[in-house]
Amino acid sequence: VYSIDSRGIMDVKRSKWENLEKFSLLMWKNVLLQWRHPVQTLVEIAAPVLFTLILVIARSLVSPEEHPASFYSPFRTQTWNPSERRNTIVWSPLNPYLTKIMDETITGLNDVSKHGSFKHTGFNHSDKLNEELFNQLSLSLFAAVIFDDSFSGDVKLERNLSAIFRFPGEVHGSTTWKTGEIFPRYYLPGVRELQYADGGPPSYANEGFLMLQEHLSWSIINHHKKTAFGKSINRSETPIFMQRFPYPKYISDILLSSLESFIGIVFMASFVYPCINTVRVIATEKEKQLKEAMKIMGLPNWLHWTAWFCKSFVMMLVSLILMVILLKFPWYPGTEHTVFTHSNPIILFIFLVLFSCSLITFNFAVSTLFSKASTASTFAGIAWFLLYVPSMAIQFKYDHVSLTEKLLATLCSNSALALGMKLIVKMESIDEGLQWHNLWSQVQGDDLLFGYVLIMLAVDAVIYLLIALYVEAVFPGDYGIKQPWYFLFLPSYWCGTTISEGNENGVHQIVNENCESEPTYLHPGIKIKAIGKIYSNNRVAVNDFSLNMYRDQITVLLGHNGAGKTTLLSMLTGMIPPTSGTATVGGFDIRTNMKAVRNSLGICPQHNILFDDLTV
């Protein structure tokens, strides 16, 4: 004899064991179905591995090259020979002290210029200068020098005097000033512009920027010295040279710079077949009513998805382990270089695992959108490639894309994969690789951190799963009870519903010679109340049908073909929703608590609901 509490505990334990048994059966079913297709299983595991082999082969064909240390000779900023056409310097604001500084600057420029034709024009205010630049942009303009407008008038200059240089947007070389970029779009290891002692493009030396900066600085220093000590500086006694910093020896790897562009596509394409095949198999169960039949037999929906997730994850886990081995194992004799030489294999594995989780839940979401397996698998292939489009869109203007836009792109799992791989390649190019200590560090000025990518992949997996569960509840397809779009906000969804008491005798009794009187001493187990079903073509299958089915009795439905017997039973078991009316089974309404109804109800359908690849 059990007390109420002990009986409740036993029910909970029994429920846990039942769920474990159901999960074991589902896993056995999924594994056996997979085992019955050995070629399909092999391709699903091998496809990602084969695409990874492409990277391994590319690694074997491109060997890293070792370079010696680089040293550079000093150079003078005054070696530039300005064009005669560009000889005008405009400046602001007008100030007697600034005028003397600019006069001295022009004198210095003319001393080192072969043409000696530099001149300057001052403006009262920077706005006036800008207006003049826009309205009368002259080909003779060399540069503009803008001091703070607070020095306008007869105002003494401060010791710390700053100036803004504005040069024409076009330069003599083939490049621009590139003021909108902090780092090159495609980073190459080693020295930038190896052959240029002055740093190369955008050519601050050849365009006269450094020369103007030197002479203006000398003039400002000279102004302060004369003000403080009453004498000038002899520039010839202190010549100024500039010299590039030396660069230590390094190893350049052309493969890494190439991988940054296409490695995301390789990994994305490697999972196309697992994606399409998983969607097809899941949608097939839905199309053949197998899933709904299992739910009628008491299968919880969460167990169905959990079993599919575990089966798919185990399949992908085999591929991921092989992929990491290929990416990290030194396959080449005499060298330790791999595809990702410096990256931590554990972090790389975690990255791929999170991506695989998002892939699996993406498959779930797609499978709920369609009732036909062929349509679902076709759409899955197209959608899989579309998830890569955001990363392509921001690739061409990556340096000008905000962090928010990058994070929005990572809501598409393939774009998150591509951007994550881009960061890994950048870390490899600086001989550091992906490590625990740089998960939350910028690489080459990129504000997208690799830790953000890991978080977004986990978020993607959760979002796709929520989409799958919501769509399945609101749009179940041809079979299943449709929930209202707001079902998440209903207390009954979270707290359940109580058993309906109502009228024990069920429907109103009809007393005539064609109807048997209903027993008053029995309780109806099933109460059908004015239930009806009208299909989309306006065909009436069941019209305002009411009936009580009593406990301890066998009730038989008789009728000709098309009378609605199968439709009625399908509505009672939740295969299809009623158009009107309702029914209660054991006190639970079929419209609001089908899960409880199915715990005490089963059905033997008139057509075979069988797994084609399972045998008895």
Q: Your description of this structure?
A:
The two termini are 40 Å apart. The chain has helices at residues 4-35, 38-61, 96-112, 126-135, 209-229, 254-270, 272-287, 290-296, 301-328, 345-367, 373-386, 389-395, 403-409, 413-429, 450-474, 491-495, 565-573, 594-598; strands at residues 65-67, 75-76, 88-92, 119-122, 141-147, 163-166, 241-242, 250-252, 524-534, 540-550, 580-585, 588-589. It is built from 18 helices and twelve strands. With 616 residues, it is α+β, with helices and mostly antiparallel strands. The strands form four sheets. It has a four-stranded mixed sheet with strand order 4-3-5-6, with helices on one face. It has a four-stranded antiparallel sheet with strand order 10-9-11-12. It has three domains: 36-59 and 253-474; 75-242, no CATH class; 501-598, Rossmann fold (3-Layer(aba) Sandwich), CATH 3.40.50.300. Residues 216-470 form the ABC-2 type transporter transmembrane domain. The chain crosses the membrane at residues 262-282, 302-326, 346-366, 378-398, 449-471.
